[in-house]
Structure formats: C-alpha cells, structure tokens
C-alpha cells in the first residue's frame, strides 16, 4: 500500500519548493485570475474555467509578445491562498518560470 501525504505534509513541501526557488532567484511571471463569485456551485465551475482560460492566455497570447520564453527546466505552479475561499471575488495566482528570450 502506498503512503499518501496528509495536508500538512503537502503544505510543507509547497513551502519548501517556494523558498528554494526564491533562494535560487528564479524568475517567475505571476498571473492572477480575474475575480469570480465562487459562493455557489455554478461559481466554482466558473472558477475552474477562469483558471483554464488564464493558462490559455499565458501560453497562447502573453508569451508571444512578452520577450520571454517558458523555462522548461523549472516547475510552474498554481498558488491558492485565502483569496480563493468561496467568496464574491475569488482569485488565485499562476506562477510560470520564465527566461529572457534570446534574439
């Protein structure tokens, strides 16, 4: 039987990952999703769609005009904090590792 992480272990791993990346001074572009009302079940579905649309925007629109490329040697991640609890203006952040585009 495989071991699974409990919530606190998973949070600790995320914190270690973020701290390590900050220490290594990696460069991330941070995108915050548009606010959405998630106080209803329909709102939760809308939030998932907003997240998908934000990812699509990043890779299909933002990168081509940004002067940056995706750093495939690093991890991207989604950051959910107190702003993403079921509320009227729910948002979350997407961290995308970037490198300056070579000319």
Automatic annotation (TrEMBL):
A Pfam family the protein falls into: Cass2
Domain Integron-associated effector binding protein: 26-98
Protein name: AraC family transcriptional regulator
